[in-house]
Design a protein that fits this description.
Helix content is 92%, strand content 0%. It is mostly helical and 103 residues long.
């Protein structure tokens, strides 16, 4: 009976050691996976920040172009207004000095 008990305890101790070894290995594996995930997340955050910076630069470039185009449009409006005023002046001056309006 004593030998059987020693055998059972030995098997139990071996199983306990095996279970503890497996649980420690699993725990270490989980820690490793968490570390890898944190590294991936860190890398993705860096990529996102880089992409945001690029997008900000592009948006600023487009804004600058819009401002330039607004200036050009304003210049065209002024030019058109001046031309219309000159044409109107010619038309009204010509009509006032025309043969039908002579005194």
């Amino acid at each position: 009976m004593g030998a059987e008990l020693i055998g059972i305890l030995s098997v139990g101790a071996a199983l306990a050691a095996l279970i503890l070894g497996v649980s420690h290995r699993l725990r270490d594996d989980m820690k490793g996976m968490r570390g890898e995930m944190r590294g991936e997340i860190h890398g993705l955050r860096g990529e996102m920040q880089g992409m945001r910076a690029e997008l900000r630069e592009e948006i600023q470039g487009v804004r600058s172009e819009v401002i330039d185009l607004r200036g050009e449009v304003h210049g065209f409006r002024v030019e058109i207004t001046d031309r219309v005023a000159r044409i109107e002046a010619k038309v009204f001056n010509g009509a006032a000095a025309g043969p039908g309006n002579a005194a």
